[in-house]
User: Fold this.
Amino acid sequence: MSTGQVSTGQAGTGQAGTGTAASSQPAATGAEAPPAIVTTGLTKRFRGGQLAVVDLGMVVPRGSVYGFLGPNGSGKTTTIRMLLGLAYPTRGSHLLLGVPMPAGAVQVLPRVGSLVEGPAFYPQLSGWDNLARVDAADRTADPRTAGERISAALDRVGLLAARKKHYRAYSLGMKQRLAIAASLLRPRELIILDEPTNGLDPQGTREVRGLIREIATDGITVLVSSHLLAEVEQICTQVGVMRTGRLVFQGSLEELRARGAARIRVQTTEEARAAEVLGKLGLADVRTANGEASAALGDQLPQRICRELVYADVPVAGLDTPRPSLEELFVGLTGEGFDVDG
Assistant:
């Protein structure tokens, strides 16, 4: 079983912890703010020569919910660990909130909250006591106001009423929410969540997704790694798609959908004749199957195609111009299927 980390500061410790020092300069805001994350040629090669991440060029805009999507084993967690300074890249560089890493870790990580590879807390302690330990590890936090911070964080994730319950008695959804609460003990500009709904039942999944949407409404940038298409469609504004360690797409969901070329699909009892008309009109990739003829639409107008079919005495029972679904687009990008549920 992998161990979790809520790393908001002293990166690389493997413990739940918070920052070791406050940021020495104010956070950039408004139009002048740099992207939340920028990577340039980021690469990780493990012993034995295995390349886990290759020449990653990621840009996460401020205020976005960035879906970092890819099949399991595509390099998402390795990337996140490098972003937070928990693993060192073989080559390349990256910035968090405009600050070079890992040199600027002490300066920037107090402004970043994270959940990596699942939550890790003391099972015999209550939710409150676990957060108290996380808060006490932050040398910049005023112990006199610890109670206020913990109460606010628990209330934010809906666990204030369960604050005295032992962690071992928490459901999986509650455990994930407690981990997110730990990342919110201090004001954050960036939250990084690695598979935050992994293993949750539908109710827990809805709770965590709702919490992510709520966090984003405060202007906090959120990076969510996931292998679930539903995650991306429901909560993300930007998306990056990984395939075997490489970023094969980056942009908005609208830009991703626009990559899918529309096809024209004709339902007819004369599919061979319909295909002949489509071919004569110059359409590419003409196919016939099960009472349908289809082709890549290109820049042709559907109404013109319909008119030509009618002029050729092809019986048209139906005509539409579907675009590939997100699932089809992701399969095309990665060569693998994605889970669409969750």
The domain at 263-322 is CATH 3.30.70 (Alpha-Beta Plaits). The chain has a mean pLDDT of 83. The CA atoms of residues 202 and 342 lie 6 Å apart. The two ends are 22 Å apart (CA to CA).
